[in-house]
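Hey, quick one: can you model this chain's 3D structure?
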Amino acid sequence: IDSLIPEVPVFLLASERSGSNLIRVIMDRHSAFCAPSPPHLLRTFMPLLSQYGPTGIETNQQRLAADICDILNRQLGEWKADITPQLILQNAGNPTFAGLFSAAYALEAAARSKKRCFIKDNGCIPFALETQACFPDARFVYLVRDARDTVVSWLRSSSHPGGVRQAAKMWKREQQQALRVYSILHETGRIHLLHYEDLITEPEAVLKD
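Sure thing. Here's the predicted structure for all 209 residues.
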């Protein structure tokens, strides 16, 4: 079981339409990193964890593992691993959400012969500090894109309804939240600030950083 647990995970903090898919695909091509399509487990389960009750109770663990698998099986993007609730429970280092979450990503990383996970989860910025508490060894990449380009990209996407005002309010709210997280974690060396504009103009240097 221990051999399946991947090395230190890296979580991406980014507003939608900020280049998050670009950096995910790039990282997935790295020999060490598994960066699968996002099932959005953090934003789905973080607000709901209290409804599952104490994770020390086996039936609660089973419900949570089953629901995680249900999300994985219904997502648009495909994962290579055939993940079942039983496999998640068997490979979880502990019965908490963090343990079950880690087991799911560990199984996917193992299926890809990778050592680390780069985790994109849209809408996870409000839960960044809770994520840090759940995953004490985790690292974070804070990706930010100019608000004007983010809004233009939002308007061009058929899956993002609403106009300029909605897109700009979303960007402002999430950047305020992300800057708070960055200010807290910066001195620990566990968060890296990345500008989208630098990524596309100096990709080699930025990716080395």
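One thing worth noting: The chain has ten helices and five strands.
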